[in-house]
Amino acid sequence: MVKPLKEMFPKEWLDYQRYIHGYTKEKIPIELVRQMLCKTNEIENEILLKYSTFTKADADDRLVNILQIPLKCILSNEEKKIIDDIYFSIYPTFEVSAIVKKIPRGDKVVLIHDGLFLSLSRMSQLQLYEVEWNDNDFIKANYDQIIEHLLSVSNLWNPNSKIKENKTIKTKTSKFRKYSGALTHASILFVLGHEYGHILSNHPSYNNDQNFNHRMEFEADTWGCKLLIRHIMLNGVHMDDNVVLNYLLLGPFLTFGLIAMIKNKESLTHPSPSNRMTRFKKKFIFNITKEIQSTAWKKINDAIDIDSLNNLLDIGEKMFLKHIEYGKIINKINQSKK
């Protein structure tokens, strides 16, 4: 007998949602689990090798915990206490969003839709393939491959769809795979930092006041930027590759670009991706400078070169605009199928 929804704790509620969305107890081969968990590090891999198989739910739970580690270690004690009271989970649909909501019992949870991670990863691969190609006629020269790749991403935007094996573009060298991984990682951290921002700012639910709702989103974007910068500065002193640091800083632009690919319009609850990107770009250097100058980070402020940030902003804007172009290609294909 299923417990009433209003009596379910967050983990019970999530397990029920997974059940009604088709999750099963079927085991996943360990090699696939390692891929899903991003092949994190040697210690993590050693732990995984002790298990023969995971279920999809096991892998999702482990992944969301792994992704939060770099953010939780840079929170103040007060911030961490607030976040620790919130249940984070990967929600079993392939929509491209993340939300803070209350479940029927009243607990606040953060739900990160499965399709968001997959879409960010695939668009990061495409972005770095273009950089690796290093040709102004990239789209023209690779049009058929790009179409296949974009269709593989757009398949994830249907909440009733299942992951399909599509031909996707992948970078060819280990160097560019590393850069693609950094860009994906940063975009996901920005999304998580954005949701952390809603919680740490104690934002209420959306209402019918569009201006109020949009201000909350802008504030959450600032938090996403702030926490991403803290992460980069904390880890930047251990990195000897400035290109990796640059791609970490470009993560938010990939996130905005993906949202714009789907729909570059404002709603009652959210500003348009173009508006968010423009506002984010204007405050980007200010937010970085402010974070670097804070007392807690003075000793590691050499991880980011402020002088190179203006050029990086131009790269980020071009990345964003290219995603709008990709969105138009997808819409044109979809229209031709009707």
Note down, in words, how this protein is organized.
By secondary structure, this protein is mainly alpha-helical. The protein is built from 14 helices and five strands. The protein has helices at 10-20, 30-36, 42-49, 56-72, 77-84, 114-133, 138-141, 143-154, 174-200, 210-236, 242-249, 251-262, 273-293, 309-337, and strands spanning 27-29, 53-55, 87-91, 98-102, 108-113. It has a three-stranded mixed sheet, with helices on both faces. A two-stranded antiparallel sheet has the order 1-2.
Quick tags:
mainly alpha, 62% helix, 338 residues, two-stranded antiparallel ribbon, three-stranded mixed β-sheet, globular
What distance separates the N and C termini? 44 Å
Major beta-sheet overview: 3 strands, mixed
What is the β-strand count? Answer: 5
- Helix fraction, binned, reads 55-70%
- Report the oligomer: single chain
Individual helix count: 14
Biggest sheet strand order reads 3-5-4
User: How many whole angstroms does the radius of gyration measure?
Assistant: 20 Å
Secondary structure layout:
Blueprint: H1 10-20, E1 27-29, H2 30-36, H3 42-49, E2 53-55, H4 56-72, H5 77-84, E3 87-91, E4 98-102, E5 108-113, H6 114-133, H7 138-141, H8 143-154, H9 174-200, H10 210-236, H11 242-249, H12 251-262, H13 273-293, H14 309-337
Parallel strand pairs: 3-5
Antiparallel strand pairs: 1-2, 4-5
Summarize the structure.
The chain is 62% helix and 7% strand. It is mostly helical. The strands form two sheets. The protein has a three-stranded mixed β-sheet, with helices on both faces.
